[in-house]
TrEMBL record:
Keyword list, A-Z: Chaperone, Cytoplasm, Mitochondrion
Protein's UniProt name: Uncharacterized protein
Major location category of this protein: cytoplasm
GO molecular function: ATPase activator activity; protein-folding chaperone binding
Protein family (similarity comment): Belongs to the HscB family.
Lineage, opening ranks: Eukaryota, Metazoa, Ecdysozoa, Arthropoda, Hexapoda
BP GO terms, sorted: [2Fe-2S] cluster assembly; protein complex oligomerization
Superkingdom, taxonomy of origin: Eukaryota
Length: 225
């Protein structure tokens, strides 16, 4: 009996997965229900009103109704995200067909991913660069040695720090650097300086990692007291 239950569960999961795959492959061509090609609404068919299938690549900015720029209106981002989720959340389609449930699940997941990406400055910057054909590799070859040495020294300072005051002083300096880099990142994107934006993002990643390490060590010190 348990084996039968597991088999049915697996079959249902495979069925939903296949539906989602079909949704992606057919998206953006025509409505899956009425076959209309007049799909000028992001989420719903303009002809019959059903939730349309998502495309393989949806632009996160268009998805959340935002201008395609780095310095976004964060309040509008939150408002648009909540409004969209209120329309396409899977709970709204609980009484619909399995196909429509699968589409809603796909959309909800995609909108969540878009929101998480655009709500964080580094991820938003990386995404904008990707849209412009610029990728950030995992190596450090694009950074100058002076900066890398400075990061090594800063990491050593964090490791050697023994008191909360020392760590707070480091955290304050790191915070100033992060604020400065964020300002430069805004300027680079405004000037369409993609190389400059790329370098600023890489530096920000280093500084954010150090900031996180400092916070973790401060928390550890506080717990010991």
């Amino acid at each position: 009996m348990l084996r039968t239950h597991l088999k049915r569960g697996t079959e249902k999961w495979l069925h939903l997965t296949n539906l989602r795959c079909r949704s992606k492959s057919a998206a953006g061509k025509q409505c899956w229900k009425c076959s209309s090609s007049d799909i000028n609404n992001t989420f719903f068919c303009a002809s019959c009103g059903v939730l349309r299938e998502s495309a393989e690549k949806e632009d996160y900015f268009e998805l959340l109704k935002l201008k395609k720029e780095f310095n976004i209106d964060t309040l509008k981002l939150v408002q648009n995200y909540r409004h969209i989720q209120s329309m396409i959340h899977p709970d709204k389609f609980a009484q619909k067909s399995e196909h429509e449930k699968a589409i809603a699940l796909e959309w909800s997941s995609l909108v969540n991913k878009a929101y998480k990406t655009l709500s964080k400055s580094i991820e938003r910057g990386k995404y904008l660069l990707t849209l412009n054909g610029v990728t950030i590799s995992e190596d450090n070859t694009s950074l100058d040695k002076e900066f890398l040495l400075a990061m090594m020294d800063l990491n050593e300072s964090v490791e050697d720090a023994e008191t909360a005051d020392e760590l707070k002083n480091i955290a304050s300096n790191v915070s100033v650097n992060i604020e400065h880099l964020n300002s430069k990142l805004v300027q680079h994107f405004k000037a369409n300086d993609l190389d400059g934006a790329k370098e600023a993002i890489i530096r920000l990643k280093y500084m954010n990692n150090i900031e996180r390490t400092v916070k973790e060590k401060l928390l550890h010190l506080n717990l010991k007291q």
